[in-house]
UniProtKB/TrEMBL annotation:
Metabolic or biological pathway: Protein modification; protein glycosylation
InterPro entries according to UniProt: Glycosyltransferase_ALG3
Family membership noted in the UniProt record: Belongs to the glycosyltransferase ALG3 family.
Name of protein: Dol-P-Man:Man(5)GlcNAc(2)-PP-Dol alpha-1,3-mannosyltransferase
EC number(s) stated in the UniProt entry for this protein: 2.4.1.258
Localisation: Endoplasmic reticulum membrane
The protein's enzyme class: transferase
Membrane topology: Multi-pass membrane protein
Membrane-crossing segments per the record: 106-129, 159-180, 192-216, 223-241, 280-301, 338-359, 371-389
Domain of life: Eukaryota
Species name: Colletotrichum abscissum
GO cellular component, as recorded: endoplasmic reticulum membrane
């Protein structure tokens, strides 16, 4: 006698779980459906919530001076101060300057940033979806993680209510990751360099990008990619460097900028005196360097299956440390999942030890956390709790001691959990045992 069918609620719960965990044909529909819903949400936000002016007018004032012929970076200023971003920022906002009637059509600007947001979200989802061990692998980011990509209040605010340049830098970071995952190294390198030319925040992932290119493209190929990225920066800076090289480099890539305590989101709980002190700055730099070294030695170089000490001698002589066969084997271990894990872990690590984070920096963090928390192997409810805590903290304005502690705490947990949960990332795939006869 056939067993009776389970109750409807049991069938329904199984169906939901199968879809949420990627075990159903409809699982593939989750990302596009969420993207469509978010498009509607962006429209509602623009319609219902007033635009908040922070930097847009200053961007347009600076661009107007560039359009008028000014090429000395030290003389280009706006309402919020001097121009402190690289040349790609100027070119990007020059396009917006013309599209929005010299920056006067804010409503159109918001619509353009909504499109930018959705394009970035689509790139993020694509990177998540293909982050698996091999092309044929079924082990990938489950659909239940994807709703976290569209639920951030702060992220929508950064894009469609503030129009920050971080939005463009974020887009090019994710496009670069996508192309790297597709093993299109040259376009990926160009996209990354252009994003870096918009805002130097992308320097945080440069160590990881360098390692990914070195392992995936080979020693010679990675050097060519590095030179290509440098060429992009040289070319976009020519109009300004030829006029005042020191002024351009000093403003566009200023690393000694003094930060205001009142705007910090992350280190408010240490107090203003500590925040502004040089020892605190040096300590953060030292911790960042140490964390990078630990990840590089114990995680990011795993595909080589060799210690760094055995790689350096040949590299210092300008030669590849691998034979042709070894280089191919190492490159085969640079999977889409390895690439995403490596670059995003460097990103969150850099943000964790940053001297000061402002609210717009959430553009770099918000879409990194869900993946890394999942990749670390944490239970789904812990992932959601940590995401919710992070989202709450970044929406507290102005920041408080508690909110800043949560901001730093969640990033610290994310970095630690990622290190603990990715010991096998990039390791050679285990061969299936031969069947016993």
């Amino acid at each position: 006698m056939a067993e009776p069918a389970p109750p409807i609620y049991v069938q329904a719960s199984r169906f939901v779980l199968d879809v949420a965990n990627g075990r159903h044909a409809l699982s593939k529909a989750i990302p596009p459906v969420l993207l469509a819903l978010d498009a509607v949400l962006c429209g509602l936000i623009i319609w219902k919530i007033p635009y908040t002016e922070i930097d847009w007018v200053a961007y347009m004032e600076q661009v107007s001076q560039y359009v008028s012929g000014e090429r000395d970076y030290t003389k280009i200023k706006g309402g919020t101060g001097p121009l402190v971003y690289p040349a790609a920022h100027v070119y990007t906002y020059t396009g917006l300057y013309y599209l929005t009637d010299e920056g006067k059509d804010i409503f159109l600007a918001q619509q353009l940033f909504a499109i930018l947001y959705l394009a970035t979200l689509a790139a993020v989802m694509a990177c998540y979806w293909q982050a698996k061990l091999t092309i044929l692998s079924r082990h990938q980011v489950p659909p239940y993680i994807f709703p976290l990509l569209i639920l951030s209040k702060r992220l929508h605010s950064v894009f469609v209510l503030r129009c920050f340049n971080d939005c463009f830098a974020t887009l090019f970071l994710w496009l670069a990751i996508f192309f790297f995952q597709k093993r299109l190294w040259t376009p990926g390198a160009i996209l990354y360099s252009w994003g870096l030319g918009i805002k130097m925040s992308l320097l945080l992932v440069l160590p990881a990008v360098g390692i990914v290119l070195f392992l995936g493209r080979g020693f010679g190929g990675s050097l060519r990619a590095a030179w290509l990225m440098a060429q992009v920066q040289i070319v976009i800076g020519i109009p300004f460097v030829s006029n005042n090289a020191k002024g351009y480099l000093g403003r566009a890539f200023e690393l000694s900028r003094q930060f205001f305590f009142k705007w910090t989101v992350n280190w408010r709980f240490v107090g203003e005196e500590t925040f502004l002190s040089k020892p605190f700055s040096i300590a953060l730099l030292g911790l960042h360097a140490t964390a990078l070294l630990v990840f590089a030695l114990t995680r990011w170089l795993t595909p080589t299956q060799r210690p760094l000490s055995s790689l350096l001698p040949a590299m210092l002589r300008g030669k590849s440390p691998f034979s042709a066969l070894e280089e191919a084997q190492v490159a085969s271990r640079v999977t889409p999942r390895y690439i995403l894990t490596t670059i995003l872990s460097a990103n969150v690590m850099g943000l964790l030890f940053a001297r000061s984070l402002h609210y717009q920096f959430y553009a770099y963090l918000a879409w990194s956390t869900p993946y890394l928390l999942w990749r670390s192997g944490l239970p789904f409810y812990v992932v959601y709790i940590l995401w919710a805590a992070q989202e709450w903290a970044w929406n507290v304005y102005p920041s408080t001691d508690l909110s800043s502690e949560v901001v730093v705490g969640v990033m610290a947990v994310t970095v630690a959990a990622t290190w603990l949960g990715t010991a096998d990332e990039g390791a050679p795939a285990e061969k299936p045992e031969s069947k016993k006869r």
